[in-house]
Amino acid sequence: MSGSEAVDVTVLVPALNEEDTIAEVVDRLLALPLSKQVIVIDDGSTDSTPQILQKYQDQITILTNPGRSGKGASIVKALPYATGKVVIIQDADLEYLPEEIPKLVDPILKGEANVVYGTRFSEGLPKSMALPNKLVNILLALSVRVGYWQRITDEATCYKAVQRDLLIRMDLQCRRFEFCPEVTAKSIRMGQRILEVPIHYEARSKAAGKKIRWTDAPEAFWTLMRYRFWKAPQTAKTPAMRELNGSQS
Fold it and tell me: What is the distance, to the nearest Å, from the Cα of residue 179 to the centroid of all Cα atoms in its chain?
């Protein structure tokens, strides 16, 4: 669905040079048994990703950044276009299985939760994940427990499903991969209990195009610290927040 009709779920797909997987990701998202909207944000790709996406222009919403803006900036750009009751992020590779999205958004659609994370660590750390990444993930989860008094096993998971209005009220400032800790921190600061649902995960290598590095960890830890005492703004600072406030007035 590429129009502005209200749907149950909006899937946001930031994409940068993902010509090998983007078509399969979109195909699998479109096949999901959900009332859905798919928004792909091409973050300045220099490969054939833009050309591949044009084949889907009548089925999805395509946004384009003229240059590399970052994952977080791409998500922020897409939020004003989201019409779903629930927003979830899908990476443009196949580390995460699109077919697991229904079970992640279901608790929110049923009113049982407002924030749901897909945890990769319900059965221990994935063997395919590099050791530095494993250590960083353990420390991030520990930081949430210590700093926010909430126990979660997988803070940095891509699969974050959030009730749309709640996500917009967070007034996201992220530009890159700090999207994850910013959403975690602000969710908890807004009084939300993060529900975790087990998912499958197959880490890809740097050679296969993985972009996040363990060296991105300092920014993630700083983001958790930065928002430790954050309070939701009362005024509409972003286009998405102004749109939300206008619809409720």
Answer: 8
The per-residue pLDDT for range 162-207, each reduced to its tens digit, is 999 999 999 999 999 999 999 999 999 999 999 999 999 988 655 5
Q: What is the torsional sign of CA 7, 185, 227, 174?
A: negative
- Closest listed residue to residue 167, CA positions, set 101, 116, 104: 116
pLDDT at 25: 98
Give pLDDT, residue 54. 97
Q: Which among 123, 158, 144, 240 has a CA at the least distance from the CA of 189? A: 144
> What own/partner pairs with CB < 8 Å and gap ≥ 24 does 186-189 have?
186/227, 186/230, 186/232, 187/114, 187/115, 187/162, 188/144, 188/148, 188/150, 189/148, 189/227, 189/229, 189/230, 189/231, 189/232
Using DSSP's 3-state secondary structure scheme, residue 201 falls into: coil
Token readout for 94 is 């196949």
H/E run at residue 160: strand 160-163
CATH level 2 (architecture), domain 7-248: Alpha-Beta Complex (3.90)
**pLDDT tens per residue, range 93-132:** 999 999 999 999 999 999 999 999 999 998 888 888 888 8
Domain ranges of the chain: 7-248
- Taking phi over 0 as left and psi of -120 to 50 as alpha, with beta for the rest, 44 belongs to left
Helices and strands per DSSP (H, E), number in the chain: 9, 7
What is the structure's pLDDT at 123?
83
CA-to-CA separations, 44 to 70, 104, 175, in angstroms, rounded? 9, 29, 14
User: Which among 167, 139, 162 has a CA at the least distance from the CA of 152?
Assistant: 139
